[in-house]
Amino acid sequence: MVMRVAVAASGRGSNLAALADQLDRPESPARIALVLSNRPDAPVLDLARRRGIPVHALRDCSDPTEWEEALRGAGADLVVLAGYLKKVPPETVSSWRGRMINIHPALLPRHGGPGMYGTRVHQAVLAAGEVQSGATVHLVTEEYDRGQILGQQPVPVLPGDTPETLAARVLEIEHRLLPAAVLAAARAGRAVPFRIEEAAGHSPVPSP
Ligand code: GRF
Description:
Elements: E1 3-8, H1 14-23, E2 30-37, H2 43-50, E3 55-57, H3 64-73, E4 78-81, H4 90-95, E5 100-104, H5 119-127, E6 132-139, E7 149-156, H6 163-188
């Protein structure tokens, strides 16, 4: 059975593009059934439309009924937060528990939590003198960035890095990590721990 994935995003949507590229093949075990955004003018919605993916601009992103109707209407099995910058209603988090994942641009549990998004994350990594950063995919719970970690991939922090150069290096790895997470979930039938190599299709079984 093909897993139907709903992606929620607020901005440019490069993670959506990477995911759509990876899933856009006949034998793919997952497909993107819906892109949701809290911003009607978000570039990610245009990107989705150009690819023929149904979109839904949330009229009230704090309304769990609107979320539920959009997700059920799309027949979603899995919800992916890919640069979604608003709070997901607690009722929605609860009813999708174990079936909603997020990508964060650092190695959680470090450099996550309320207010840690965008360039602030990379500023914090540099300010802490970390020698590596990376990306993390985790289950979504009511606490920001605290749900079970499903997969991570490090990248080095290099001398002379700025938040921008570090963000670009992390983003490259995000574009591989998120498809790996979704493919592993689709093969297992639920969100599971995974390794990044699974995006290439070499590992049909989820890692323990
Ligand atoms: C990514 O760095 C993601 O980890 C973060 O927001 C950014 C979204 O980028 N939460 P994009 O919209 O997918 O290009």
